[in-house]
Amino acid sequence: MVSTLIVLSLIITTARSFNGFGTTGDLTTRKRELAAFLAQTSHETTGGWPSAPDGPYAWRYCFIREQNNDQAYCLPGVWPCPRGRLYYGRGPFQLAYNFNYGQAGRDIGVDLINNPDLVATNPTISFKTAIWFWMTPQGNKPSSHNVIVGQWTPSAAERDAGWLPGYGVITNIINGELECGHGPDDRVADRIGFYRSPSQLYEKCRDAVFKCGNISIGYPFSGGDREPECGHPNLELRCDDFTNTTKIEIVGIKYKVLDIHHESRILRIAREDFINNGSCRPQIPIQDSILNSEPFVPGSRNTNLTLLYDCQSSSSLGIFPCNSSNYNNVSITTD
Ligand SMILES: *[C@@H]1O[C@H](CO)[C@@H](O)[C@H](O)[C@H]1NC(C)=O
Ligand SMILES: *[C@@H]1O[C@H](CO)[C@@H](O)[C@H](O)[C@H]1NC(C)=O
Ligand SMILES: *[C@@H]1O[C@H](CO)[C@@H](O)[C@H](O)[C@H]1NC(C)=O
Ligand SMILES: *[C@@H]1O[C@H](CO)[C@@H](O)[C@H](O)[C@H]1NC(C)=O
Ligand SMILES: *[C@@H]1O[C@H](CO)[C@@H](O)[C@H](O)[C@H]1NC(C)=O
Ligand SMILES: *[C@@H]1O[C@H](CO)[C@@H](O)[C@H](O)[C@H]1NC(C)=O
Fold first, then answer.
1. Is 67 in the pocket of ligand 4 (CB under 6 A)?
2. Phi and psi at residue 64, in whole multiples of 5°?
3. Catalytic residue check, 44
4. Is the pLDDT of residue 309 over 90?
5. 3-state helix, strand, coil in the chain (%, to 5)
6. φ and ψ at 281, to 5 degrees?
7. How far is Cα 219 from Cα 225, in angstroms, rounded to an integer?
8. Which ligand has the minimum distance to the alpha carbon of residue 320?
9. pTM summary value
10. What is the pLDDT averaged over residues 17-26?
11. Is the pLDDT of residue 101 over 70?
């Protein structure tokens, strides 16, 4: 089972390529959209059952591939199926059928008709197809995104058919032909159950904070005496108990953490090997050591990235005087 928080960070990395996902409307609307997305994908991949240990909703993201998958799910049309390729359910939404693989692949720029298994084996592609499904109107139905952020108004006919804006319409978009319009349905109840139950991992990690000296921070950072799942493995903080200073290692290079500002999303770090040693010629260029490494991926929303290395003002950008008294001063900011 993949932990929910890791899943969240994958979503955040992937979501940058979809304008509007999780970023539309006020904070409540954004949280509601992410909660609905997590609940629906949790149901699609659930390994729980009514009397499962810790309850039916403790078993999210268990199945990447549909169980007993030997069907081709190939319908005739504009997306002919190459020999031997099967389009059974894969990924967070259990994307199925050749036409869905064809359209999703076309829109995210990956040939999924010839390589359908990428939806199960490549986490980024997997989540891109899920967010694609969420953002794209399906047939004559609206997109799940438009429904949950309140940008869909049902027509008179849709109102008469009982289509009212809300979580239930999303279930109809996903699997309406099978699950809707015939009274109580266990699958529908399971989707609602996930929406109502906060993840147990979230509850466990919500109040777990890394504390060291004057630094105090929770997700997305891991480290300290917290559960490892409470943060990203590449953002592990360590505390030096003798000096109460916080350390972080990024792509094999050790840094001292000077400051973390959660709200402004600024992490200020200084290379340990250059602190007070009179040299300022990094062996590895900074762009190789940090900027191209996950999770520090410059996304489309982080177009402006400023690196200040021992600078008194941004006018001295790119000039690194070695002998000032200001060695501990590196800040990387993105907007
Ligand atoms: C934390 O303390 C260090 C010195 O121990 C100081 O350089 C740094 O500015 C302090 N950070 C904050 C956020 O107070
Ligand atoms: C480090 O922090 C602990 C707990 O706050 C404190 O007891 C200890 O004196 C601090 N050590 C130093 C060197 O500041
Ligand atoms: C400073 O650190 C770098 C990297 O570890 C090392 O190559 C260099 O020799 C050090 N300079 C001094 C003066 O110790
Ligand atoms: C990035 O910085 C440039 C130069 O300061 C500025 O003109 C531009 O508007 C900035 N872009 C964003 C997205 O903030
Ligand atoms: C780092 O540089 C900035 C920009 O010049 C300055 O405002 C800040 O006081 C410096 N911080 C430290 C710890 O030297
Ligand atoms: C740094 O070194 C340069 C010469 O290399 C010197 O002119 C300057 O005064 C020095 N600055 C400090 C703060 O020591």
1. no
2. -80, -35
3. yes
4. no
5. 35, 15, 50
6. -115, 90
7. 14
8. 6
9. 0.63
10. 88
11. yes
Mean pLDDT of the chain: 81
Number of other residues whose CB lies within 10 A of the CB of residue 33: 22
DSSP 289: I
Which ligand has the minimum distance to the alpha carbon of residue 322?
A: 6
Return the best residue to mutate from 258, 266, 330, 331 for the ligand 1 pocket (most ligand atoms within 8 A of CB): 258
Q: Quote the percentage of the chain above a pLDDT of 70.
A: 77
- 241-292 per-position pLDDT tens digit: 999 999 998 878 888 888 888 776 677 777 777 665 555 544 445 545 555 5
More confident residue, 250 or 320: 250
The DSSP bridge partners found for residue 248 are 237, 255
Distance (angstroms) between ligand 1 centre and the Cα of 308 equals 18
List the 253-261 sheet strands across, edge first: 221-223, 232-240, 245-250, 253-261, 266-271, 330-334, 305-309
Closest C-alpha among 60, 54, 84 to residue 72: 84
Q: For CATH 1.10.530.10, list the domain ranges present in the chain.
A: 4-205
- Please identify, in words, the CATH class of the domain defined by 4-205: mainly alpha
- In this structure, the residues whose C-beta lies within 6 A of any atom of ligand 6 are 323-324
- What spacing in Å lies between the alpha carbon of 244 and ligand 2's midpoint? 6
Residue of 33, 44, 229, 263 marked catalytic: 44
Cα distance between residue 37 and residue 219, in whole Å: 20
Kindly provide the b/e burial profile for residues 170-208, where b requires at least 16 CB atoms within 10 angstroms of the residue's own CB: bbbbbbbeebbeeeeeeebebbebbbebebebeeebeee
The CB-based long-range contact list for 235-239 (8 Å cut-off, 24+ gap) reads 235/295, 237/210, 237/212, 239/210, 239/211, 239/212, 239/213
pLDDT digits (tens, 9 = 90+) for 126-180: 999 999 999 999 988 999 999 999 999 999 998 998 888 999 999 999 988 889 8
Q: Which of 84, 35, 25 is nearest to 60 (CA)?
A: 35
Atom 6 in ligand 1: which residue has the minimum CA distance? 258
Q: Any idea what DSSP says for residue 82?
A: P
pLDDT for the residue numbered 303: 47
